[in-house]
Backbone:
C-alpha cells in the first residue's frame, strides 16, 4: 500500500540549523553586552572609590595645613610659593612646620602605582572667599587702630552664589583700651547693617523678611566701611560679616593699599591635588592672618527685631 505525502510538505532541517545559529549569535551578543556592562560597572565603582579616597586625602591634608600656626605659615611663603610633589617631599615639608604626617596605613592603597599628591602654598590677595550662612568673617582693627590712616576704607566686593540675592549682615564692634583690657561699647541696633547683595535691581530672596529693612547692594559696586570710625569715645575694634539665607562670595581690599597699618588682607592659599588610581581630586582653602580670624558665629544668628523678641533670620 502506498502512502502519498502532500505535495507541499518539505524538509525543514536547513531552516532549523539557521534558526539555531541565529539563537546562538543573539545569545553571544547578549552575553558580550552583559559582560561589557559588568566590566564597565566594576571599573566605574573602582573609579568612584578611588575618587572618594583621593578627596578624603585632600580634605585631610587641607585640615592639617589649616592647623599650622598662622604666623609660621605666612612666613614660609613670604619669599615665594612653596610647592612639593610626592608623599616623601610632603612629609619633609610637614616636618619643617613641626607637624606629623597622616597615618600612612590609612591611605596605603592610594600611594601605589599611578597615585600621587601635589601641594602648593602661595600668598594671595583679592580672591573671592565663599562664606555660607554658617560662617562669619572677621576683620580685627583694634590693635592697629592708631596706625590706620584717615580716610582708610575697607572695600568688600560681594557676589551672591546660588541665588540672585542674598542677605549680608555687617556688624561693627567698638571698643577702647582700659589698662590692659578692652572695654566694648554696648550693643546698639545701628551697629548692625543689613544688606541685600543682589545681581539684579531688586532683592528677591524669599527667606529675607521685611525686605524694606535690607539695603540693596549691587554686585557692581563695593561695600565701603570706614576703618577710622568712632562712636561715643569707642573706636572701631572689629568688623564682622555674616551671610544670611545663602552663600556670599567676598573679596576684601583697601581703598589705599597699606592705609590700615598692620591690618593685612592677604591670605595663604593651600592647594592640594591627589591622584588615586588615575582619579584626581583637588581642594583649595584660603587661610587668613590672625587679624581676619574671629570668635564663634553663635552670636551672629540672632538679631533683635525691635518688637521685644529675639528672632533668628
Residues:
Amino acid at each position: 500500500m502506498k502512502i502519498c505525502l502532500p505535495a507541499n510538505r518539505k524538509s525543514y532541517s536547513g531552516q532549523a540549523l539557521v534558526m539555531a545559529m541565529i539563537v546562538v549569535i543573539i545569545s553571544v551578543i547578549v552575553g558580550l553586552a552583559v559582560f561589557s556592562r559588568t566590566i564597565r560597572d566594576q571599573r566605574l565603582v573602582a573609579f568612584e572609590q578611588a575618587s572618594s579616597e583621593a578627596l578624603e586625602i585632600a580634605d585631610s591634608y587641607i585640615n592639617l595645613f589649616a592647623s599650622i600656626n598662622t604666623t609660621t605659615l605666612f612666613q614660609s611663603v613670604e619669599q615665594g610659593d612653596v610647592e612639593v610633589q610626592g608623599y616623601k617631599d610632603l612629609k619633609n615639608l610637614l616636618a619643617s612646620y613641626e607637624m606629623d604626617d597622616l597615618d600612612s596605613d590609612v591611605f596605603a592603597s592610594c600611594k601605589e602605582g599611578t597615585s600621587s599628591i601635589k601641594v602648593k602654598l602661595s600668598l594671595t590677595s583679592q580672591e573671592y572667599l565663599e562664606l555660607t550662612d554658617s560662617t562669619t568673617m572677621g576683620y580685627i582693627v583694634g590693635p592697629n587702630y592708631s596706625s590706620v590712616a584717615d580716610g582708610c576704607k575697607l572695600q568688600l566686593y560681594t557676589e551672591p552664589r546660588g541665588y540672585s540675592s542674598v542677605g549680608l549682615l555687617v556688624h561693627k564692634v567698638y571698643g577702647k583700651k582700659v589698662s590692659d583690657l578692652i572695654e566694648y561699647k554696648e550693643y546698639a541696633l545701628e551697629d548692625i547693617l543689613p544688606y541685600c547683595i543682589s545681581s539684579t535691581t531688586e532683592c528677591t530672596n524669599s527667606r529675607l523678611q521685611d525686605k524694606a529693612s535690607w539695603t540693596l547692594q549691587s554686585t557692581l559696586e563695593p561695600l565701603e566701611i570706614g576703618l577710622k570710625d568712632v562712636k561715643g569715645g569707642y573706636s572701631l575694634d572689629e568688623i564682622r560679616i555674616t551671610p544670611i539665607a545663602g552663600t556670599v562670595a567676598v573679596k576684601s581690599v583697601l581703598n589705599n593699599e597699606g592705609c590700615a597699618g598692620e591690618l593685612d588682607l592677604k591670605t595663604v592659599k593651600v592647594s592640594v591635588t591627589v591622584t588615586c588610581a588615575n582619579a584626581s581630586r583637588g581642594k583649595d582653602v584660603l587661610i587668613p592672618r590672625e587679624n581676619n580670624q574671629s570668635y564663634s558665629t553663635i552670636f551672629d544668628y540672632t538679631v533683635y527685631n525691635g518688637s521685644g523678641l529675639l528672632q533668628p533670620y
User: Anything to note?
Assistant: The chain has two domains: 15-125+266-303, 138-259. Residues 138-259 form one domain. Confidence is low (pLDDT under 50) at residues 303-313.
